[in-house]
Amino acid sequence: MLEQEEKALCGRLESVRRRLDDAVRASGRKQEDVTLVAVSKFHPAAAVEALARLAGHAVFGESYVQEAQEKQQALAGLALSWHFIGHVQSRKARDVAGRFALVHTVDSEKLACKLHQAVQPPDGEQPEGARTVQDVLVQVNIGCEPQKSGVAAGDGLLRLADAVAGMSGLRLRGLMCMPPLTCQGEEARPYFAQLRGLRDSLEQRLGMRLPHLSMGMSHDFEQAVAEGATLVRVGTDIFGERSPR
Ligand SMILES: *Cc1c(COP(=O)(O)O)cnc(C)c1O
């Protein structure tokens, strides 16, 4: 990357960090309670490397399996924490399981089973370097949009969370959502509040702590922080617009 581009990139990260700090402070929360996941999909490994080396950023989110694998390999020398935030097709579960610090998008029992089996295969053949327990979030289709992934809030969520909590290869850490695209900023806020409510009642039902709420993107992460987000996923405001692939 050109030095000029790197500078602009670090400047945008700096400004997102400032907005995040302000939001955290305004909601009376602690900085260490909210993690910024820099969503690097469609952007080159060089951009990730620049943020890691020049700005000390270590947490990155990817949405596509092959693209994620390529960047992980290219940047294997850096101590980065990779999150998977895209839809996982069941047949790709093997390529995801054990290879990310957190998978945000478990949305079916079938996928959960495949991830569990991939990290703890019945034949004991563990892929080298992979985790044996995969931290996951359950993705909730909070706006009930037919075209969106995620489990419906209600019985579906209860059943899925219950199943995931019972799989030794998976550690359920919380919930993730994407409000309808048309709802940005303050309009997204009721959805974030709803996800927090779902998490709180799930904690009661399952009798376990679910510390994470993955919610908020470039246009609405401040509102998400106000409603309790612990992971915000910011792409555009850090990396710039994504060009279509
Ligand atoms: C691409 C993506 C983001 C980043 O969105 P921006 O609006 O670019 O900040 C966040 N979450 C998910 C699930 C994504 O796919």
From TrEMBL:
GO function term, MF aspect, one: pyridoxal phosphate binding
Residues bearing PTM N6-(pyridoxal phosphate)lysine: K41
Keyword Plastid found: no
Domain annotation Alanine racemase N-terminal: ranges: 18-242
Pfam families: Ala_racemase_N
Entry function: Pyridoxal 5'-phosphate (PLP)-binding protein, which is involved in PLP homeostasis.
Name assigned to this protein: Pyridoxal phosphate homeostasis protein
Organism encoding this protein: Oleidesulfovibrio alaskensis (strain ATCC BAA-1058 / DSM 17464 / G20) (Desulfovibrio alaskensis)
